[in-house]
Automatic annotation (TrEMBL):
Source organism of this protein record: Roseburia zhanii
Residues binding substrate: T153, K179, T190, E276, N402, S407
Gene3D superfamilies assigned to the protein according to its UniProt record, in alphabetical order: arginine biosynthesis bifunctional protein suprefamily, ArgJ beta chain, C-terminal domain, L-amino peptidase D-ALA esterase/amidase
UniProt-annotated site: Involved in the stabilization of negative charge on the oxyanion by the formation of the oxyanion hole, residues: T114, G115
GO biological process: L-arginine biosynthetic process; ornithine biosynthetic process
Entry EC no(s): 2.3.1.35, 2.3.1.1
Subunit structure and binding partners: Heterotetramer of two alpha and two beta chains.
Catalytic activity annotation: N(2)-acetyl-L-ornithine + L-glutamate = N-acetyl-L-glutamate + L-ornithine; L-glutamate + acetyl-CoA = N-acetyl-L-glutamate + CoA + H(+)
Name of the protein this chain belongs to: Arginine biosynthesis bifunctional protein ArgJ
Gene Ontology CC: cytoplasm
CDD domains (alphabetical): OAT (cd02152)
Family per similarity comment: Belongs to the ArgJ family.
Length: 407
């Protein structure tokens, strides 16, 4: 596997475009389009929130029932959530407009929205945006990059990645982009993520690969403990790499799964590190667990602890907060056997041994915790299972951003 420059246009046969439709923002692009030159197999995973946005319901139906997908229309600024029958009608209207301009069927068009909940989409602007983007579609890196920029809301930067791997004698590419900064606390995933691949693979294995992979990637991030109404991951495969079609769990499938995991892990970490107001990516590794599930529960509990997140912002090695968060996680372990380490590019330091603080340098610990990427490693000494979760620090700016979000 090799990492390459690119995003949603890296795979063969995929094009993208972006435009400034003026849906909410007046100084930037706010609509994106992804298009495949041939029909794709589609897989998807969606929010577990009972309150689901209209685009989520639309895409769930397309992924489950449609023979193929060929285009995705995304808007930023308005979520089209809690909008009733009118919101669903707008999904249909969006798909119909794109289908007419792209010469594809309406049920081959996926839609996604992100932004303020409860507002209706300005369909005149949505349709004008689709009309503007259709003739601009290209397969260049710049087009994919522009699309990644257009789907942002409170994100501070675009998020994209691409890799290649070998399947048979062919080079296969997987690329992706996502947006996510706040309302990040998944039980599936939480954000919008769009992944494209030129792999030839069956719909069943495509869906299985995605559904399994999110458990260790998007499901292991948290910014603020809020699960969104619009969470969507879409994976499109158009077969343009011309590799022998993957229809069973062979070596090519394992290579595909490995590459997909890299893409999803990279995007997940980019979202966690770009949490609203954040200054640091906070990674928590639990090792020595008796089961994978135990390790996941413990690591997620730590990254969602507001007190721990605040300590990371203050570069404070307040290890008691970490042990406390592990203790209320619901997972059973012996706190008197836990070893805890902090590490970053500035170094690595053991803070506690067998649940008791060591005689460490607070100054050195603060230096380690002052880096933009910080890791806490907790060894519970119960087995060989491990899990990693990603979050961010909690800052004053998180409150400011969300207090002013609708204004």
């Amino acid at each position: 596997m090799e990492k390459i420059k690119g995003g949603v246009t890296a795979a063969k046969g995929f094009k993208a475009a972006a435009t400034a439709a003026g849906i909410k923002y007046t100084d930037r692009t706010d609509m994106a389009m992804i298009y495949s030159i041939v029909p794709c197999q589609a897989a998807g995973t969606f929010t577990t929130n009972i309150v689901k946005a209209a685009p989520v319901k639309w895409d769930q139906k397309i992924v489950k029932e449609s023979r193929a997908a060929q285009a995705v229309i995304v808007n930023a600024g308005i979520a089209n959530a809690c909008t009733g029958e009118e919101g669903m009608a707008y999904c249909s209207q969006t798909a119909k407009k794109a289908a007419e301009l792209l010469n594809v069927s309406e049920d081959a068009v996926l839609v996604a929205s992100t932004g303020v909940i409860g507002k209706q989409l300005p369909m005149d602007k949505i349709c004008a945006g689709i009309t503007a983007m259709a003739p601009q579609l290209t397969d260049t890196y710049e087009a994919g990059h522009a699309a990644a920029l257009a789907i942002m809301t409170t994100d501070t930067h675009e998020k994209e990645v691409a890799v290649t791997f070998e399947a048979g004698t062919k080079t296969v590419t997987i690329g992706g982009m996502c947006k996510g900064s706040g309302m990040i606390h998944p039980n599936m995933c939480t954000m919008l993520s769009f992944i494209t691949t030129d792999a030839a693979i069956s719909k069943e294995l495509l869906q299985e690969a995605l559904s399994e992979d999110i458990k260790d990637t998007y499901n292991m991030i948290s910014v603020d403990g809020d699960t969104s109404t619009n969470d969507t991951v879409l994976l499109l495969a158009n077969g343009e790499a011309k590799n022998p079609k993957i229809t069973e769990k062979n070596a090519d499938y394992e290579a595909f799964v490995k590459a997909l995991n890299y893409v999803n892990t990279t995007l997940a970490k980019q979202m966690a590190g770009d949490g609203e107001g954040a200054t640091a990516l906070f990674e928590v590794k639990v090792i020595g667990a008796e089961s994978k599930e135990q390790a996941k529960v413990l690591s997620k509990s730590v990254i969602t602890s507001s007190l721990t997140k605040a300590a990371i912002y203050g570069h404070d090695a307040n290890w008691g907060r970490i042990l406390c968060a592990m203790g209320y996680s619901g997972a059973v372990f012996d706190p008197e056997k836990v070893d805890l380490y902090f590490e970053s590019k500035a170094g690595k330091m053991q803070i506690i041994k067998d649940g008791v603080a060591l005689d460490y340098s607070e100054e050195e610990a603060t230096k380690i915790l002052s880096e933009p990427e910080v890791t806490a490693v907790a060894d519970v000494k119960m087995g060989d299972a491990t899990a990693t979760a990603w979050g961010c620090d909690l800052t004053y700016d998180y409150i400011k951003i969300n207090a002013d979000y609708r204004s």
